[in-house]
Design a protein that fits this description.
This protein is mainly alpha-helical and 330 residues long. The protein has one domain. 71% of the residues lie in helices and 3% in strands. β2 and β3 (153-155) form a beta hairpin. This is Branched-chain amino acid ABC transporter permease.
Length: 330
């Protein structure tokens, strides 16, 4: 498929989504912003799971580190410069990804999953049991960072519209970057590693280096989502680093389908909306108090019915629509 035809639908969808601030009320705009943030988070894990075949339960570490760094590097009673805070948050998460990746990538299979979980829990207890990040109570970001170019230009993100458009732009850039990455020689090497790592080694590829770079890139993209999350809520606590957060984003990738990048986005949309549905007292009534049960049962049913995720369902429908009609011979 020509490149312009491949990227035209996402571009048109982005332009449509950019109209949301003028079509949605404050509640639904905040919900849409939450979906955008989790979509970036899911894309980061999709690079590992769908790209290199690395199932990680430690992705929340980079998400949480960046969220804490965003608050800790921001002055308490004045707006920080986003051109400083954002790189600082990405560097902190990237360094942790580089350090831990050099260790965890020496394991495979279930051992890789458990070691990534262990490193994530280690960061969780660092922030939970020390006063560095406010302990179990967390810390607050009172004023969102803003774009500043000296005294020449300032763009505040306090506006819900500005912050939504900023989040949408970062999601579009993240998807575009990963799309080009997976279509490059590097992406082809990752696919080869996922399919048969031993054969790739036999062909002379240093598979560890490819996986290490992918692990760092995934950590930095997760950090981008963590930075947005901290600015959106103005509050971070150790629960952002808990294993449940890693499990949630892994469910997004599985539900959406690990074959395509947009599957991670579809999974983030579906799972966030399901959470919102089951937590709604207006819709679920008293069942909203037990939303975890309804949510868990719905995930089991969806995974059972859609073994290839939402991507598989969409692909199957496209194949049925394009298949030539065959008349039965009698």
């Amino acid at each position: 498929m020509p490149t312009h035809k491949l990227f035209l639908p996402p571009l048109l969808l982005t332009l449509v989504l950019a109209c949301a601030p003028w079509l949605l009320n404050d509640y639904y705009l905040a919900l849409a912003n939450k979906i955008l943030i989790y979509a970036i988070f899911a894309l980061s894990l999709q690079l590992l799971v769908g790209g290199a075949g690395l199932v990680s339960l430690g992705q929340a570490a980079f998400f949480g580190i960046a969220a804490y760094a965003t608050v800790l590097f921001s002055p308490e009673y004045e707006a920080a410069n986003l051109f400083f805070v954002l790189p600082a948050a990405l560097v902190c998460a990237g360094l942790y990804a580089a350090l831990t990746g050099a260790l965890v990538l020496r394991t495979t299979g279930i051992y890789f999953i458990m070691v990534t979980l262990a490193f994530c829990q280690m960061v969780y207890y660092v922030f939970h049991d020390t006063s560095m990040g406010g302990g179990s109570d967390g810390i607050y970001l009172y004023i969102r960072p803003e774009f500043r170019l000296g005294d020449l230009y300032t763009l505040s993100l306090d506006s819900a519209t500005h912050f939504y458009l900023y989040s949408l732009a970062l999601l579009a850039l993240s998807w575009l970057f990963l799309s080009f990455l997976m279509r490059s020689t590097f992406g082809a090497a990752l696919t080869g590693i996922r399919l048969n790592e031993q054969r790739m080694r036999a062909h002379g590829f240093h598979t560890f280096q490819y996986k290490w770079v992918a692990y760092i890139v995934a950590g930095i993209i997760a950090a981008l989502a963590g930075n947005l999350y901290a600015m959106r809520d103005g509050y971070v606590n150790p629960e952002l680093l808990a294993w449940e957060q890693s499990g949630l984003v892994l469910l997004m990738v599985i539900l959406g389908g690990k074959g395509r990048l947009w599957g991670a986005i579809a999974g983030a949309v579906a799972l966030t909306l399901l959470q919102e549905l089951f937590q709604s007292n207006a819709i679920m009534g008293s069942w909203a108090n037990h939303w975890h049960l309804s949510f868990g049962l719905s995930i089991i049913v969806l995974v059972a019915l859609l073994p290839n995720g939402l991507v598989g369902l969409a692909t199957r429908r496209m194949n049925l629509a394009t298949a030539p009609s065959v008349k039965e011979e009698r």
